[in-house]
Amino acid sequence: MVQLDFIVMAVFAVLIFAIGLAFTRTGSKSSQAFFEAGGETPWWINGLSLFISYFSAGTFVVWGSIAYKHGLVANTIQLTMAISGLIVAVFIAARWKRTGTRTAAEYIGVRFGTKAQQFYTYLILILSLVNTSAVLYPVGKMVYVATPFSLEACIIGIGILIVLYTAAGGLWAVLVTDVVQFIILMAAVLIVIPASFAQIGGVSNLFRQAPADFFEPFANDYTAGFMLAFIGYQTVYIGGNWSYVQRYTSVSSERNAKKVAYLFAFLYALSPVIWMLPPMVYRIINPGLQGLEPEGAYMMLCQRVLPAGLIGLVLSGMISATSSKANTTINLSATVFAQDVYRSVFRPDASEKEQILVARLFTLLFGAGTIGVALLVPLAGGIVEVVLSVAAIAGGALFAPIIWSLYSSRQTAFSVVFTTIVALVVSLSFKVLLPAFAGFKLDRSVETLLGVGLPLAVLGIFEYYYYTQGMKSPRALALQQAPTRETPAVQQVQHEAAQQQNRFGITVIIAAAAFVGAGIALLGVLAGSNMTVVAVGSVIFLLAGTALYRYVLKA
């Protein structure tokens, strides 16, 4: 990398941080603005945010590493996410909106009581700390591969940036930066792919020179059984992860909640074909990466095929994409702590401004903890092992019982908490204790199937027992009959405030997109009139200009 690359990265970093600051005032007006982004955000913003948040959990490092090693297997894994997203769209997303609650934590409190809410809150905060660290590490790894900085310095620097803009603007800052990050990412990938194929002499050489089993959909650790189990896991994770539940509850209607998940599924049905090509191409260029080196295959390719300035752009896109998962989880953790720990346990009479202040302070503390844990990821066997292990152990145990309760009026606080404890103990035993003391280890397919299947089996037993006893939860029946929380007059005020926030948010997205497009086109000129780059930037700028005229100036 040269000076121009660092300048490009700095400019885009300032842009993202400035967006966060732009929503500081909006996010400070009320807890609804900070925690729910007004409660009526446009479904397409939430859908893009859900996609880029989920997509970035390690796509370029985790799945990129698998794409380098096993080829088409990485595409198959990601296509399971499209299937899971479709299931969530059809069956789950609208159910969350129908509860009338703002967050998953609030739903658990109403449905199962304060003790169950606290139990899940503490577990989710721990899981969020690990998940965010598992995201921050890939960001740092990509910057480390492309720059002279140490891995530790990269993780710390990027972590601080993410924490600061998330603390400033709340959920709106997260949503808008996610959309802008999606634009940067799309531009970056569209630039990298043609350059990648040019490096190996065309698409045909990828098929001609790849290893014999490179285009098989399955591999040793990633069998058809694993893919089926992974669909189950992804379904409960996309449908029940507290960060993503916010995307379904902060839109205006059940129909729009479905649209959020449908957009996610559509994008994931298309994206694997594009995203995984660069590391697959790099396997042809340099087949000798060993150990944890394949985690950096994406950036190694970019350094090889792109001129000065464009490496900084692509790296900004990768960082932006991966960072969006971190900001989503950090925002969720701050929301949960402020509303469901601080207010519920310590300060029941806390004002809205006090809750927002606590959320911002917790964001800073949680971010510091995340950075610390991210530095330990290499000691756990690398990012692939961390991501898949956490998924197998915690996904079904924490999220399946709550999703089940969206359909069942029989499940109780005891049944869901008992199910979670049993699933966690059994999965941890098979993952940690038995390998250490008995030398017995499950393969990845069975491990993932156990993580999802066991809690569903236990819940099924409880459901049957409660059915035979004719039991229904009084809390579930009360939730179904709960009146609207606000009067029509208050609802109208909130609606008008939400519409104002929406207009401001969309205006910021359009302006940022125009800036990104102009910047990319300028980079294309500086890179020796690279017409691909100029064209990508120009299209983004023109689309943003058209949107600005139709939505802002003409309105």
TrEMBL record:
Membrane topology, from the record: Multi-pass membrane protein
Any one GO BP annotation for this protein: sodium ion transport
Top-rank taxon: Bacteria
Transmembrane segments: 6-23, 43-66, 72-94, 119-137, 149-175, 182-202, 222-240, 260-277, 297-315, 357-380, 386-407, 414-437, 449-467, 504-527, 533-553
InterPro entries, A to Z: Na/Glc_symporter_sf, Na/solute_symporter, Sodium:Solute_Symporter_SSF
GO CC, alphabetical: plasma membrane
Subcellular location: Cell membrane
Major subcellular location class: membrane
Family: Belongs to the sodium:solute symporter (SSF) (TC 2.A.21) family.
Protein name: Na+:solute symporter
Organism: Dawidia cretensis
Organism phylogeny: Bacteria, Pseudomonadati, Bacteroidota, Cytophagia, Cytophagales
